[in-house]
Design brief:
By secondary structure, the chain is of the alpha/beta class. The chain folds into two domains: about 170 residues, Carbamate kinase, CATH 3.40.1160.10; about 140 residues, VC0802-like (2-Layer Sandwich). About 35% of the residues lie in helices and about 25% in strands. The chain is built from eleven helices and 20 strands. It has an eight-stranded mixed sheet with strand order 3-6-2-1-9-11-12-10, with helices on both faces. Helix 2 runs antiparallel to helix 3 and helix 6 runs antiparallel to helix 7. It is globular and about 75 Å long. The structure holds adenosine-5'-diphosphate, aspartic acid and magnesium ion. Magnesium ion (MG) binds next to loops. Adenosine-5'-diphosphate binds next to loops.
Length: about 425
């Protein structure tokens, strides 16, 4: 008997009809002779609604209380699915994160799973029940409710699949797989049959929110076979797995984008050792993550430095930087929170030169100005004005011919 973990996202449990539909799908998987663990998100829009209420009550709600509030969303959906499964005469038992013994650290609103004691879930499975687990939540060692960050139900599902040694972890969502770019922005984006963990990790880190980054990290670390599928229609979906000889190997696998960043620039700082540390140290101490950094030295012996942070940290970072830059005799601090980052991802980049030049030409042809550039082995990212986001993404998708099916097993074309 195979053990399958199925995760259904917010839209897939968006109303009572959808939940009944999920119940029928779960029952069919069970009746096909599998053991089934289901992980659910809150009903679509619920987590946003709860967050908005919290922010109406308080500008800075305590993160512990936010977790208590946000975890209610998933508790609703697991109970309703179990009731629906009962209507289908399919035995099932719901589990909150605590009941499923998903133990996390104490970083409220962005906790990390440390350990799962699968005994309770295993007992339900042995008793012939479907285990229906609340995604996105866990408990810390003192029994406090924690949540895993937005999109965290994906991570719950993969972590459970790893802990239980499941055959496959299926992520059911509102698209029928992983596409060459977000199909909401690029209408002719193409579904990929397979993607490597490595590429999926880059795509997710660079903004493709179809899977939470941590979920892909877990899947890769524990070699969990992961599949993204539509809960609305039948189909093979996209298999995310380690690289093998039979996989398609396109030069570029996708275009990702992210509108959550903001950039800050310090101009005219005297160029001497220790300046970067003095400017960025206080930002790090305030727990603000820095993404891209660009530094330029001019002939007059001063330096300009630009870096990006998450948009929600923009004000705090600006104030900190302004204060410290003044002590360092900087000429000015400026910033812009209307930027977007567009990234090209592909393992084929390793062996092919000229990708960056082709990327910049495609953007230039649309008169899109590039403000920052960063590269790694398998990705190139640029920062542009956010008003060019969609145009830029579509231009790159077209320039690299991503809508067309790459020939299978082709040793990448340049
Ligand atoms: P769920 O609620 O099921 O977790 P999400 O909204 O978190 O669903 O993720 C699915 C969405 O991810 C899709 O509707 C799509 O707009 C978006 N998305 C972004 N990039 C991609 C991509 N490369 N492939 C597929 N979907 C993508
Ligand atoms: N409900 C949470 C969210 O909206 C977790 C999830 O859906 O994965 O982010
Ligand atoms: Mg999601």
């Amino acid at each position: 008997m195979a053990l399958i973990v199925q995760k259904y996202g917010g839209t897939s449990v968006g109303d009572l009809d959808r939940i009944a539909h999920v119940a029928r799908r779960v029952k069919a998987t069970r009746e096909a002779g599998n053991e089934v663990v289901v992980v659910l998100s809150a009903m679509g829009g619920e987590t946003d609604r709860l967050l908005e209420m919290a922010h109406q009550v308080s500008a800075h709600p305590a993160r512990r209380e936010l977790d208590v509030l946000l975890a209610t969303g998933e508790q609703v959906s697991i109970a309703l699915l179990c009731m629906s499964l009962a209507n289908e005469r399919c035995a099932a038992r719901s589990f909150t994160g605590g009941q499923a013994r998903i133990r996390t650290d104490t970083s409220h609103t962005r906790a990390r799973i440390e350990e799962i004691d699968v005994n309770a879930i295993s007992r339900a499975l042995t008793a012939g029940e479907v285990a229906v687990v609340a995604g996105f939540q866990g408990i810390d060692q003192d029994g406090n409710i924690t949540t895993l960050g937005r999109g965290g139900s994906d991570t719950t599902a993969v972590a459970l699949a790893a802990a239980l040694g499941a055959e496959e972890c299926q992520i059911y969502t509102d698209v029928d797989g992983v596409y060459t770019s977000d199909p909401r922005v690029v209408p002719d984006a193409r579904r990929m049959d397979t993607v490597t963990y490595e590429e999926m990790l880059e795509l997710a880190s660079l903004g493709a929110k179809v899977l939470q980054i941590r979920a892909v990290e877990f899947a890769s670390k524990y070699n969990v076979t992961l599949r993204v599928l539509s809960s609305f229609e039948e189909g093979p979906g996209t298999l995310i797995t380690s690289e093998d000889a039979t996989m398609e190997k396109p030069l570029i696998s996708g275009v990702a984008f992210n509108q959550d960043e903001a950039k800050l620039t310090v101009k005219g700082v005297p160029d001497r050792p220790g300046i970067a540390a003095a400017l960025l140290g206080p930002i790090a101490e305030a727990n603000i993550d820095i993404d891209m950094i660009v530094q330029n030295v001019s002939e007059d012996g001063t330096t300009d430095m630009t870096f990006t942070v998450h948009r929600r940290d923009y004000q705090a970072a600006f104030e900190l930087l302004d204060r410290h830059a003044r002590n360092l005799d900087a000429a000015a601090v400026t910033g812009d929170d209307r930027i977007a980052k567009i990234s090209l991802v592909g393992v084929g980049m390793r062996s092919h030169a000229g990708i960056a030049a082709r990327m910049f030409e495609a953007l230039a042809a649309e008169s899109i100005n590039i403000q920052m550039i960063s590269t790694s082995e398998i990705k190139i990212s640029v920062v542009v004005d956010e008003k060019y986001l969609e145009l830029g993404v579509r231009a790159l998708h077209a320039a690299f011919g991503l809508a067309e099916q790459p020939p299978r097993n082709q040793a990448v074309k340049s």
